[in-house]
UniProtKB/TrEMBL annotation:
GO terms for molecular function: structural constituent of ribosome. It comes from Nippostrongylus brasiliensis. GO terms for cellular component: ribonucleoprotein complex; ribosome. The keyword Ribonucleoprotein applies. This is Small ribosomal subunit protein eS24.
Length: 163
């Protein structure tokens, strides 16, 4: 009776040979301002439906604060020989005690595919899209209630009025 916990090389119920293991895990030692930071990518999958590679990213940063996502984007782009604008890191959480952060990264084939498949909020975070400012919740509610009191084309003048 063998469990996955005792055999970390088991993946999806099968053993991985050493060549496959090297393909699944890649290391990248990077020096940030004198401190050595190791970026490790694991479980790299090629998702042809969404034109991307997806992976788990581990960042080892002993004695240092969490590494910014912009730096992680640049380093992953260098590892996979692509540009930083098609790399989307997200979901990073630092381990208790610090020194280690885990998250996910997606590498799209082109920037167009990234814009097509990524959620708007991630594109806004990366600076690839602009946030639409809809005004405050109370202002929208008041405008809606003012519009209820009139009919027809007057609704437009009521909503555009009071500024």
């Amino acid at each position: 009776c063998s469990s996955r916990a005792s055999k970390p090389w088991l993946s999806n119920g099968r053993e991985i040979h050493s060549k496959e293991l090297n393909a699944l895990v890649s290391f990248h030692n990077v020096s940030f301002k004198g401190d050595v930071v190791t970026i490790r990518t694991r479980k790299v999958l090629s998702n042809r439906l969404l034109y991307r590679k997806q992976m788990v990213v581990e960042v080892l940063h002993p004695g240092r604060a969490t590494v910014p996502k912009t730096d992680i984007r640049e380093r992953i782009a260098k590892m996979y020989k692509t540009t930083p604008d098609v790399v989307v890191p997200f979901g990073f959480q630092s381990a208790i005690g610090g020194g280690k952060t885990k998250g996910f990264a997606l590498i799209y084939d082109t920037l167009d595919y990234a814009k097509k498949f990524e959620p708007k909020y991630r594109l806004i975070r990366m600076g690839l899209a602009t946030k639409v400012d809809r005004g405050g919740r109370k202002q929208r509610k008041e405008r809606k209630n003012r519009q209820k009191k009139v009919r027809g084309i007057k609704k437009a003048t009521v909503s555009a009025g009071k500024k």
